[in-house]
Amino acid sequence: MKKYVSRMIVLFTIAILFLSLPACGGDDQQAADFSKTKSIANDPNAGLSEFELENGIGPVKQKLELGPIDPKLVKKGGEIFNTKCLACHKLDERYVGPAQRDVLKRRTPEFVMNMMLNPIEMQEKHPVVKKLLAEYMTQMTNQNLSFDDARAILEYFREVGK
Amino acid sequence: MLNSQFKKWLMIGFPILSIMIFYFGCQQSKDAISGDVASQVYVAPGSYDEFYLFTSGGFNGQMGVYGLPSGRLFKNISVFSQNPETGYGYSEETKAMLMTSYGFIPWDDSHHPELSMTDGVPDGRFIFINGNNTPRVAKIDLRTFETTEIVEIPNSAGNHASPFVTENTEYIVASTRFSVPIPQADVPISTYKENFKGTISFIALDPKTEKMNLAFQIVVPGFNYDLSHAGKGPSHDWAFFTSYNSEQANTLLEINASRNDKDFIAAVNWKLAEKYVKEGKAKKMNTEYYHNYFDEKKHYAFSDIKKEVLVLDPKDCPGMIYYLPTPKSPHGVDVDPTGEYIVAGGKLATVIPVHSFSKMMKAIEEKQFDGEVDGIPILKYDAVVAGEVQNPGLGPLHTEFDGNGYAYTSCFVSSEVVKWKLGTWEVVDRIPVYYSIGHLNIPGGDSKKPWGKYVIALNKITKDRYLPTGPELTQSAQLIDISGEKMKMLLDFPTIGEPHYAQSIPADVIMKNSLKFYKIEENQHPYKTNGEKEARVERKGNNVHVYMTAIRSHFSPDNIEGIKVGDNVYFHVTNLEQDWDLPHGFTIKGMNNGEILIMPGQTKTILWKPTKVGVYPFYCTDFCSALHQEMQGYVRVSPAGSDVPLVYFTGSQDKK
């Protein structure tokens, strides 16, 4: 009996020591949660709305009213395309990225706008763009286009894709 | 029986004892690890520091940028020295920045960073720094953290008391540590007393163009002018310069310049000097000096060669300059936030003398003079001194202020920072530093409104403080908390180069204006390639111009043939990226010049002179993407006079 009591006391002591261990370390651990990843678990739409699936993720959140092709805007868009995009996109051949002449036959104008304006998030989240990244291997760079710049390039695509 | 009693005691006592030991042990380690010293300097990964600290690079000629309170190094800004990392001073665009009347000088000794001020408070627009050896003053734009202007100072040697600014950065000052013949002449050194002079220069900063212009110089007696600070508030119109070697020794100054009981602080009324210049009292002196500036739109530096300078002689300009006698070879001169007290660091003195601006004005009015030197009246010491700090420590050098009525003085010989009270002059605290402190800095500590949270000790010697690295050891800064009554040592951190002097400023004043990239449409570089369509190679005689683009992750063109031994090949590389933190680097095998690091939206040019036949790979040096290793190309170099045609392409030979 005595032996049993003494064993109990020793065990109890060890248990207390163990229990108090994490409490001791607790304060110095400056909650180290730097991960910002959100899991999009097995959702076939990858957590995207129907609109986003069709038109991409980014600043364009509703359908655009395009109107007739504006030649002035086409010219401006062509110039910006040549400076900032042509290094990776040709009109008629696969290069670093896909050929662009027929892009509006493949994607909606809103999708093209969102891809130009928000390429990083599109590559992270949109299933269509993820597939493109897997195929082309090179990440599309963010060229920090303004909305007006992207709109002008869209006009250029409308013209060259006619 | 006794034995079992003992066992019983042991059985109850042991657990209690062990719990107690553990509990107190735990308390102790908690204090040691997360005590407030560690947490005061801990900046969590991904978080920003509260202050920027700009340290001079000393004899590396550059400027360091650190964060406070962490002591983390962010950047080494290229100023007076070539930088092989960025191509500064190697690239065609930046060579002009290092031009002087003595030719191309790829090095200097930089001592004092000084933030631009508005209404006596650092405004975060610019930081200036002096080149000591070949007298120059540089301006760094704090939008880009790049050197954008360098003015050479003629009629000067050892530009030490520089580049301190007036209350609204009307002027940036410069002066001669070493007196020399002015104008320079071939004379015996022993004629020092008759032929050698000093100068004090005022560089104006144009409020509109923000460009520097050497407005005028004042010729002063041939002493060694050491440090300076401008007045503020009531003393706004004045600037103060310490001098030593009033003995005018030209050999063994260690002994010969330490004889006089008192040397001088020169008080210069720059407002009046400006008026005399407007009235035409300045004489035009022929000279030669360079004014170099970087055009941010053209991404190119230019040099203007100036041929004359306006010079004022104190003899023609009454009331412009007075001497304040100050004990024993004073070093620093620092003006308190109210603009009333002028503190001198008498490095060989046993006291810190403090002059009063209001007493000085009264003494001038009452003509309390004690002789003159070359037409400059000497004011009586007792008529200008406000008080002396007794027994401050050995070798007091520099003083900064916390804005709460206290001053902090560095003591070189006794390796300590001494805190004392303005007005009563009593020492209230002292803290040892490791070792041999020169300057010290408090954020805004030389301004009207210091952010008096820390003092940074800038130490010359570190001996046993860090892991040894052979005979050459790092120099260091130390961060001290001054928010309480007692100073508290927080952190040691090594610095690149000698952190001679430093200035610091709250990060939010600067970071909101920080440029992320250069807009490609605003790039007016004469050799810009406006998109890959324009990428090309042009031959003009022996000169070959490669108009090249870089974007993740290829160059265009990336195959070039038809280059010949003896050609001067200029690679003009335009970085087409338009995103933050995406520079590309460029170099080629056998490059006998340097690499270039091209920021997004920028064009840079590097000259290559191939000397041997062969095929030379070039590549991107700055890891830019997952396909960075693929970012490469080849140049074929043929013998001089060969008829290999000039061909260039990317992707396929038939489509250029």
Number of helices of chain A: 8
Regions of chain B with pLDDT < 50 over 5+ consecutive residues? 19-34
SSE-based structural type of chain A:
mainly alpha
User: What integer is the average pLDDT of chain A?
Assistant: 82
So what's the overall shape of chain A?
Answer: globular
The rounded Rg of chain B comes to 29 Å
Oligomer: heterodimer
Helix content of chain A: 40-55%
Can you describe this structure?
- By secondary structure, chain A is mainly alpha-helical.
- Chain A is 55% helix and 0% strand.
- Chain A contains eight helices and no strands.
- In chain A, helix 6 (119-125) packs across helix 7 (127-136).
- The relative contact order of chain A is 0.15.
- With 656 residues, chain B is mostly beta strands.
- Chain B is built from eight helices and 45 strands.
- Chain B is globular.
- Chain B starts with a helix and ends in a 7-residue tail after the last strand.
- Chains A and B meet through helix 1 and helix 3 of A and helix 1 of B.
Topology:
The complex is a heterodimer of chains A (162) and B (656).
Chain A: H1 2-26, H2 50-55, H3 71-84, H4 103-106, H5 109-117, H6 119-125, H7 127-136, H8 147-160
Chain B: H1 2-34, H2 36-41, E1 51-56, E2 63-68, E3 73-77, E4 99-100, E5 103-104, E6 114-118, E7 121-131, E8 136-141, E9 146-152, E10 171-175, E11 180-181, H3 192-195, E12 196-205, E13 212-221, E14 224-230, E15 238-244, H4 253-256, E16 262-269, H5 270-278, E17 283-295, E18 300-312, E19 321-327, E20 330-335, E21 341-346, E22 351-356, H6 357-365, E23 369-373, E24 376-379, H7 381-384, E25 385-390, E26 396-401, E27 406-411, E28 416-421, E29 427-432, E30 437-441, E31 454-459, E32 475-481, E33 488-495, E34 502-506, H8 507-511, E35 536-540, E36 543-551, E37 554-556, E38 559-564, E39 568-575, E40 584-588, E41 596-598, E42 603-608, E43 614-619, E44 632-638, E45 647-649
Parallel strand pairs in B: 13-18, 36-39, 38-44
Antiparallel strand pairs in B: 1-2, 1-34, 2-3, 4-5, 6-7, 7-8, 8-9, 9-17, 10-12, 11-12, 12-13, 14-15, 15-16, 16-19, 17-18, 20-21, 21-22, 22-25, 23-24, 26-27, 27-28, 28-29, 30-31, 31-32, 32-33, 35-36, 36-37, 38-45, 39-42, 40-41, 40-43, 43-44
